[in-house]
């Protein structure tokens, strides 16, 4: 029986599984597969081990099938066709009888519990649908293989895995469709449009993407992807670095040769280098996003990174805390004695809850009036591409910021140059100011102001604080999202109209409910002390 064992140097638990000699050539000559569990805790390692063992054994079993010619890889289109047949069959039943709303809601919750959404910005696909990381279990793989066999297909294991993942997403979509119908929402179901009609392209033998095909260096595909997608400079740099690590570890730079087994090797080596699970997951998902585009645009026949990202361990609580009233007041008070960006960045972060990149990349002209109120016009630029499409919003200025004199600061800014709201911040070679601002703000808050709690992030803790302040003020959920720039669609009507993001005058009515931490501190100081109970002598 395979058990977790400690790495001799890092003491991180890992799984080791020997590869049968006849199959070693399929794994680059290696005699065993090793995958880190990403933890030093024996109880956590024991919990994670079964899934990793299953995954490794499945890889070896799939290699055995391929070595015997018993399985072929399927194209992404063919996998989508199988999922589409499943979805359309289920949708027909839902449309006929959705059942009770309570049952439908419970089904959605149970399915979502099977996959933990990551905090890496990859939970939504290009159509805005929820796409968390999902690792199929034995029953999921068995169902996927059975459905493929029913369609007359003999896929390799990697394709079975991809089918299982797509079937899971289809089940989630069906559960959500059932819930909408049970609640009386009979609007058009657009999810079915994502699937191609059945009976299209068949599975493609692995050799067609092997050495006989022209090489596809990562840089070539990444440049083509970037030309169309126009990612943020930081995203492009991160993806280039990830692909560079892939080429370094695998020993070749040709995405048409990369197989899922190679991605397993890549993950194991990176984790063995003591790189965090979150970073490795981010790299795999980034490479997968580019390769998915490559498949869609006929540069690649398959995406070897699909659903291969390691799953970071669940956190029992958030890794960050918001600033307390006293901490927030101390920072704002200290900012009053500063100039330039240090004078106004803390105030804007405090009263907007915005991401630091959204604030420091603003231009002078982004501070303007709309619907009779002063706003920060947060929209995509070359330096500020945004985390998702819904970050764009007209964010009203809180009365406390205006009363503090922020508009007077804006009024005397130079009109020339790049028109930055903070021209005194250092500009990086890519034209952005976020890195410099994050570093300088961190030094000021931690070193000069003495707020050294590792759970307090000098910039992002303002965002956590604002979320809590909005909750305490009973601000509506849609207005909360319009203020913080989050994507939380709640029903079919969420995509209709311009919403609160385009109504700064309405959002201001909600934002006014959030008090200034300076006012909260002053009120606390002015409050009379509670009288202590007079000590009464005992009568006994």
Task: Present the secondary structure layout.
Blueprint: E1 5-6, E2 13-18, E3 32-36, H1 42-67, H2 76-96, H3 101-114, H4 138-150, H5 157-182, H6 218-229, H7 233-250, H8 260-272, H9 277-296, H10 325-335, H11 340-352, H12 356-360, E4 367-370, E5 373-378, E6 393-396, H13 399-403, H14 406-411, H15 434-448, H16 460-472, H17 477-484, H18 504-511, H19 517-526
Helix pairs in contact: 2-5, 3-5, 4-5, 6-7, 7-8, 7-9, 8-9, 10-11, 10-19, 11-16
GO biological process, one term: DNA integration
Pfam families: DUF6538
Domain Tyr recombinase: 318-509
- SSE order: EEEHHHHHHHHHHHHEEEHHHHHHH
Q: CATH superfamily name of the largest domain?
A: Intergrase catalytic core
Mean pLDDT, all residues: 80
Return the CATH topology of the largest domain: hpI Integrase, Chain A
Computed structural class: mainly alpha
Name of the top-level CATH class of the largest domain: Mainly Alpha
The residue ranges in which pLDDT falls below 50 over 5 or more consecutive positions are: 116-130, 200-212
Broad shape = globular
Rg (C-alpha, Å) = 27 Å
Strand order of the largest sheet: 1-2-3
Percentage of residues in helical conformation: 40-55%
What's the number of helices? 19
Task: Give the strand content.
Answer: 5-15%
Q: Give me the count of strands.
A: 6
- Outline the biggest β-sheet: 3 strands, antiparallel
End-to-end separation: 72 Å
């Amino acid at each position: 029986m395979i058990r977790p064992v400690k790495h001799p140097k890092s003491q991180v638990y890992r799984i080791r599984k020997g590869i049968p000699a006849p199959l070693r050539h399929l794994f680059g000559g290696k005699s065993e597969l090793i995958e880190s569990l990403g933890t030093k805790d024996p109880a956590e390692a024991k919990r994670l081990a079964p899934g990793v063992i299953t995954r490794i054994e499945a890889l070896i079993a799939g290699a055995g099938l391929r070595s015997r010619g018993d399985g072929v890889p399927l194209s992404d289109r063919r996998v989508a066709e199988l999922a589409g047949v499943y979805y359309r069959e289920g949708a027909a039943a839902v449309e006929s009888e959705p059942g009770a709303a309570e049952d439908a809601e419970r089904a959605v919750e149970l399915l979502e519990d099977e996959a933990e959404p990551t905090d890496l910005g990859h939970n939504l696909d290009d159509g805005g649908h929820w796409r968390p990381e999902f690792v199929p279990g034995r029953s999921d793989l068995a169902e996927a293989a059975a459905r493929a066999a029913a369609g007359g297909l003999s896929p390799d294991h990697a394709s079975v895995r991809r089918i299982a993942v797509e079937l899971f997403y289809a089940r989630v979509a069906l559960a959500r469709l059932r819930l909408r119908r049970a609640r009386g929402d009979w609007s058009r179901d657009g999810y079915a449009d994502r699937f191609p009609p059945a009976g299209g392209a068949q599975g493609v033998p692995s050799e067609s993407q092997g050495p006989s095909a022209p090489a596809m260096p990562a840089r070539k595909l990444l440049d083509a992807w970037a030309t169309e997608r126009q990612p943020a400079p930081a995203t492009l740099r991160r993806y280039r670095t990830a692909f560079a690590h892939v080429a370094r570890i695998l020993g070749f730079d040709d995405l048409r040769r990369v197989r899922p087994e190679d991605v397993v090797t890549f993950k194991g080596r990176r984790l063995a280098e003591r790189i965090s699970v979150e970073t490795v997951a981010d790299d795999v998902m980034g490479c997968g996003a580019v390769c998915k585009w490559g498949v869609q645009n006929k540069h690649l026949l398959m995406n070897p990174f699909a659903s291969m990202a390691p799953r970071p361990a669940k956190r029992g609580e958030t890794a960050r805390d918001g600033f307390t009233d006293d901490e927030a007041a101390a920072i704002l008070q200290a900012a009053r004695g500063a100039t330039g960006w240090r004078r106004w960045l803390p105030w804007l972060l405090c009263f907007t809850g915005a991401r630091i990149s959204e604030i420091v990349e603003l231009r002078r002209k982004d501070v303007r009036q709309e619907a009779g109120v002063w706003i920060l016009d947060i929209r995509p630029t070359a330096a500020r591409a945004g985390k998702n499409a819904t970050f764009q919003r007209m964010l009203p200025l809180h009365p406390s910021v205006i009363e503090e004199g922020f508009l007077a600061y804006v009024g005397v800014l130079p009109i020339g140059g790049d028109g930055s709201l903070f021209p005194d911040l250092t500009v990086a070679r890519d034209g952005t100011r976020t890195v410099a601002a994050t570093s300088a703000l961190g030094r000021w808050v931690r070193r000069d102001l003495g707020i050294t709690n590792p759970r307090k992030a000098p910039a992002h803790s303002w965002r956590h604080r604002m979320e809590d302040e909005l909750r305490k003020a009973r601000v509506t959920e849609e207005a909360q999202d319009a203020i913080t720039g989050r994507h939380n669609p709640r029903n079919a009507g969420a995509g209709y109209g311009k919403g609160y993001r385009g109504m700064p005058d309405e959002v201001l009515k909600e934002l006014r409910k959030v008090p200034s931490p300076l006012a909260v501190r002053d009120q606390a100081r002015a409050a009379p002390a509670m009288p202590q109970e007079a000590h009464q002598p005992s009568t006994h």
